Amino acid sequence: MSAVTAEVREAVVKRRGHPSSHGEARFGFAMIGLSVLFVAIFTAIPIVASLGLSFFSWDVISTPEYVGLENYRRLFTDGPVLKSFGVTLGMALAIVVLQLTIGLGLAVLVNQRKLVWVRTLFRTAFYLPLLASTAAVSIFMGYLFDYKFGVVNYYLSLLGISNVPWLTSGFGAAATIVLIAVWQQIGFTFVLFVASLMSVPTDVLEAAQIDGAGAFRTLFRIKIPLISPTILFAAVVALINAMQLFDQPYIMTKGGPGSATTTVTIQMYQKGFQNLQFGYGSAIAIVLLVAILVITGLQFLAARKLVFYQ
Amino acid sequence: MTESTGMLARIGRISGIAILVIAAMIALGPLLWTVTTSLRTPAEAFSNPPQWIPSHPDFSNYAAVFDRIPIGRFFFNSVIVTGLIVVGQTITCTLSGYAFAMISFPGRSVIFGIFLATMMVPLQTIIIPVFVIIRYLGLADSPLSLVVSALGSAFGTFLMRQYFMQMPRELGEAARIDGAGHFQTFLMIYAKMAGPAIATLAILNFSGFWAEFYRPLIFLQSQDNFTLPLGLVGLQGNLGTGSISVVLAGVVLAILPSVLLFIFAQRYFIAGITAGASR
Asked: What is the secondary structure of A59-78 as a DSSP string?
């Protein structure tokens, strides 16, 4: 009833305008004013400015000099920068895959628990790391994974495993940072998947049980397809975040050893803010944005085959 | 059910619980170690095996962290910056979210579309122009630069809009007939009902900006203006490896406010995560 009246009202409004539409419009503009102002100055304009700056050479102090595509030409011949894209992509993919599979596995296991307090207990445990800042996490993880004095190597030595160069070897540092990022972020995918699994209708699950489907079949044939839109969302968000990986490698390894953990954002920070090459830094930022958009696009493309929408 | 499948089910159940317990230990272990090590004397902080339960807790590190570095100052900066962003964004996003949901004005869907588009853009890809604008505004090396550049939020606007969209329009229409103005209708009727959405946005912003490292690193130069995460990383460098228990005391102090808030408002943290999934 009310939906019908709302529709009629909407139609009337569209055709001849609301009786007080002039005042209403003014009120609407006033209400969005502050948000539009701040989003325009600090998000929308900077997107355009970032693209514009990438065609200039600028050290912040002197006047910008137009250089055309020079920054992009330089980027695609700049070995260290190109390598940083590879490093970032590799670490990001590892983070996303681990975060999704472990998060989903834990969510499925917690979802099987019938007692509410047990579920709350585990949810709290997996969520707590998310409450610490990446700076705090990087500091204490740096100590825990210390080569000589770290607790991790201490316990491994009890098992007869000699000191592992967690943060002091190239592959070790990249892998350790991936593990630490997954450790901290697992609460995000976990909470999403638990909420999503709860919404799987029980009658569907009961029907599967009556038909004799086992736990694994139910999981892979029913639960995962039904929550696949959430999995896609988690994959997209996690990847966008992981492609911007900065805090952990910057604090724990400064991008090293060598350039093993120098991500794109660390390169951009060094070129832009340390060497004051704002044009070149912007070009790196734009290529990173394009890379993120392309990967996100690929995810949605893959999703057309894999994701099941009700 | 035959005996063997019952047996299998029991094994499955027990191993499921075992995996969960181990995962919880991995999730909590590093945090527990941080707390207990912050209570050890600096001399024995790095000695193994670690003490999971401190035998004689030593709180002197917490005094030392205030003596050796301006952590009080960092704390103050973080409180001001985070507080102003939380309050500011609550206001801007509630106003605009309401307008996009309930008020019709020309260009509404176009402007909202632009908002949605900016939501996808990562901070790092716009940080250089934002830094330049901050400099032009004379806010370089000021904690206020962190506030001003975070007062508008496309995501916050979107979150509030979604919430207002679910509210019945009839309430406002009735109030309008009774003679209430547009703003009065918003403030006295709809804003009052938006509590849960405001709480979700505020908590999302608190935990995000309290922990922020990247923008402070770029915007701030002098140590007096540092926020907690940035100051702590500097602290780690200043003291070297000599007394990690003091550094860890600082880390615990920095995490504590978020944990306390989480204990009292857990459902809004969870709502903050799942709210994003609906977009």
From this structure: -SSS--EE-TTHHHHHHTT-
A207-252 pLDDT, tens per residue? 888 888 777 888 888 888 889 889 999 999 999 999 999 999 999 9
A36 chain-B contacts, CB cut-off 8 A: 96, 111, 152
Sequence spans of domains, chain A: 3-39, 70-306
CATH class of the domain at A70-306 = mainly alpha
Question: Hey, CA dihedral for B206, B207, B210, B215, is it positive or negative?
Answer: negative
Task: Flag if B115 and A122 touch (Cβ within 8 Å).
Answer: no
Q: Which of A154, A192, A237 sits opposite B48 (nearest CB)?
A: A154
- Cα(B168)–Cα(B164) distance, integer angstroms: 9
d(CA A194, CA B4): 30
Entry pTM: 0.89
pLDDT single digits (tens) A70-121: 999 999 999 999 999 999 999 999 999 999 999 999 999 998 888 889 998 9
Q: Classify residue A162 as left (phi > 0), alpha (psi -120 to 50) or beta.
A: beta
3-state helix, strand, coil in chain B (%, to 5): 75, 0, 25
CA angle B32, A182, B124 (to 5 degrees): 115
Matching residue, tokens 């006033």: A30
Residue A35 contacts B, CB cutoff 8 Å: yes
Question: How far is the C-alpha of A86 from the C-alpha of B5, rounded, in Å?
Answer: 48
Asked if B158 and B97 touch (Cβ cutoff 8 Å), the reply is: yes
ipTM given for this complex: 0.89
Residue type, A307: V
- The one-letter code for the residue type at A80 is P
Q: Which of A56-65, A258-267, B12-21 has the highest mean pLDDT?
A: A258-267
Chain A positions in Cβ-Cβ contact with residue B96 (cut-off 8 Å): 31-32, 34-36
The alpha helices in A132-169, defined as continuous H runs, are 134-144, 151-158
